[in-house]
Structures are given as structure tokens and as C-alpha cells.
Specification:
The chain has 277 residues and is an alpha+beta fold. The protein has two domains: 129 residues, no CATH class; 110 residues, C2 domain (Immunoglobulin-like). Helix content is 47%, strand content 23%. It has four helices and nine strands; from the N terminus they run H-H-H-H-E-E-E-E-E-E-E-E-E. The strands form two sheets. It has a five-stranded antiparallel β-sheet, with no helix packed on it. A hairpin with a 2-residue loop joins strand 2 and strand 3. Helix 3 runs antiparallel to helix 4. The two termini are 37 Å apart.
Amino acid sequence: KSLSRSSVRSRMSLKSPKAYNSLQKGALIWDPKPLQVKKIFEALKKGLNEYLEAHQAELDYLSGRHKDTKRNSRLAFYYDLDKQIRSVERYIRKLEFHISKVEELYEAYCIQCRLRDGATNMKQAFSLSPSTKASRESLLELYKNVQECTEDMCFIEGALEVHLGEFHVKMKGLVGFARLCPGDQYEVFVRLGRQKWRLRGKIETDDSQKWDEEEKIFIPNLHEKFEIKVTELRGLATILVGVVTCDSINFFTTKPQAIIVDITELGTIKLKLEVLW
């Protein structure tokens, strides 16, 4: 156990814990969620591999053009193509390192999870046995092991969050058919953990919509879902239209994701967003 923990600490001691969302003061999560982390890891790895495949295909295409250009084309165009190839190669190396780092973190996380499960099972077994001085000492040691494994898992979760990238969320408007009338004003509140986005919009006479903001960047979180709240503004009064939550696990992909969520229970008003990872 001590060898494994020192290995975890040494691999992640290059960055201050302040850099990790889950390790900020007052925000440490002492209840790791291995199943959720597994889902995020698999989605993240799949998305990174999509980016890697796309850039590898681009590199193959540029390399083919590079060979043809070398035989019969202008010298300036040849060097410009060469520059593009080098740029894509550098990006591919960064992606490969990114993927290896994510895999390394998740492997360390799984080790700590198995150690914690083993210590928990042993603690439960000792607690059912007759109480003796030796059993009490063993229980105390096992309790410390569980706490240390839990702390390491939380630390790794925070380290993994650094590698989740960014979500660029674009406002595409409300869809409500007869429910939306010219002059209506709405407020949309989007939250992901501590990150918040509040924007207001108005339905114009030509049925178009005008919003005071169009895009917001969110940093993905392992444990939080998007919370969306829509209210209608009527003078000094506000009327709640609906509140929904949206999981971000499907957003780890190369293509922009169009999201249409039902704000009301019957789906008479929907909110349309676009997310680019």
C-alpha cells in the first residue's frame, strides 16, 4: 500500500492541488464515485481517440500531397505544406501524451479503488469477530488505510479533471411554437458545479430571438451535471417555466452536439443549445 501511494503522489506532485477543482478549499469530495469516473474516463478516451484519428487522417492526406508537390510544384507551396505537416505532427504527439496521461491516472485510480475495497471488506470482517486488543489494533489500521485510499482517489479525481478540456456552449434559442409570442422575455440560467451562466432573451416581432449573450465556456466536472432553469419575465414578476438537468457524458466528441431539452413537462417549450468540446 505504501509503495502504491508514494507512486501516486510522485506522479502527480508536479502541479499544486489548487489547480484541481475537486481539491479547492471546502470542495474536497470525500465520497469518490468510481462508476461515474469510469463512465467519464471511457467517454474522454473515446473522444481523444476520435481527435487522434481525425488528425492522423489529415496527416496522411498532407503527406500524400507533400510527395506529389515535391516532384512538380512551386517551392513556396512545398514549404508551406511541410510547415502544415510539422504542425499536425506536433499536435498528434500532444494528443498521444494526453491519452497516456489520462490512462495512467485512471490506472492509479483503479488500484486505489481496489485497495480501498479490500481494506473495507477486511474492516467489516474484523468488526464481526470477537473484540481483542489485536483485532482493535487491526481495525484502527484498516480504518486508516480506507481513509488514505479515499484521499488518494479524491486526489486523482481532481488530477483527472485537469485533462477534461472545455465545453463551448452556444445559445441557439427557445423552441415553443404557439407558446412563444412577440414581446415575451425569458431568462435562462445554466449551471455546472460552481460555474454559472445567466442570459436574457426577447422574442422579436418577426419571431426571431435576441439574447444578450451567445456563448459560454464551461470546464467539465466529474461529478456535476448541467442544471438548466428557464423563467419568463413579466414586468417585475418572474414565472418559472421549468428546471432540467443534462448529463455531459455525451459531449466528449469531435463534432458539435446539438442539444434540445424539454423545459416543460409536456415539452411545449424546449431549449436548444450547441456544445463543442
